[in-house]
Amino acid sequence: MLLRLCRWLRLLGYPTVSAHEVVDPKRVEDEDAVLLEFCRERDALLITRDRALAERAPRSVLVRSDDVPGQLAEVLAALGDEPFLDPDESRCPECNEPVRRVRAENPGPFEVTWRCPGCGKTYWVGGHWRDMERVIREVERRLRGR
Ligand SMILES: [Zn+2]
Questions:
Q1: Which of 86, 110, 118, 135 counts the most CB atoms within 10 A of its CB?
Q2: Number of domains in the chain
Q3: Residue 129: domain span
Q4: Whole-model pTM above 0.90?
Q5: Predicted confidence (pLDDT) per residue in 78-136, tens digit
């Protein structure tokens, strides 16, 4: 599964649904058929490591890279997009809802935070943001190297 890639695509603002959120493991059904129908109905881009599945989808990206920067570069290249990290455009990595900027009532170290209306999680631009920016720079480097 490409769960880390899914979380990153949400952070970059792409509405992204993971296969395990589409396929019900308790029901016996053809998982590939369920995913393909989901993508067809929504004109969604299918991102997969499965070559045969990718070939059956109307729009797909076959992921070959094993790390997140490489995977992001592959998807963004297919979309013709540049990586762009903006918390106001981000979606919640947990549940895919667009996050909303909120001003803290009792400002702690972070005056501005972002809250997910879906799951209630709060996000802020802290030290981890620099790590994320490092990943984005690596994605840019890989895109230029293509
Ligand atoms: Zn959420």
A1: 135
A2: 1
A3: 3-144
A4: yes
A5: 999 999 999 999 999 999 999 999 987 776 677 789 999 999 999 988 888 889 999 99
